[in-house]
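Blinded run. Sample ID left blank on purpose so nobody reads anything into the name before looking at the predicted structure. Input follows.
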Amino acid sequence: MNARGAVTAEFAVVLPAVLGLLAMLLAGAAAGMTQLRIEEGARAGARALARGEDPAAVEQTVRTLAGGSASVSVSADAGWFNVTVTDRVPGPLGSSIPWTLTARASTRSETPGAGAAGAGQSSTVAGVFR
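Blinded prediction complete.
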């Protein structure tokens, strides 16, 4: 009896499952790396705002760390600065699945009078950068 045809059939059945699993693992790794990048970008942006840097410099700092495809939103609320960074997962699975990751960092201003919009009031330091 020749088992050669059976092995080929089993390989043909298992190969797509293995490739699908590999694609999902790579997409998960890409999502993890993207999340780490945008979290670091949000933290660095919040630190820059706390030091009193202007929003354009903050955007540049965030884009350097988070990547050029990330969206940056900066706001101030009662002496607190909030930096929100969003980005999509890269790669073939990331583009076919609407998978958007978000990171947010908040800090108080280290410079006197900066970011003090008043208690309960909110103001936008800079809009959304794309």
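Unblinding after everyone has recorded impressions. Residues 115-130 have pLDDT under 50 and may be disordered.
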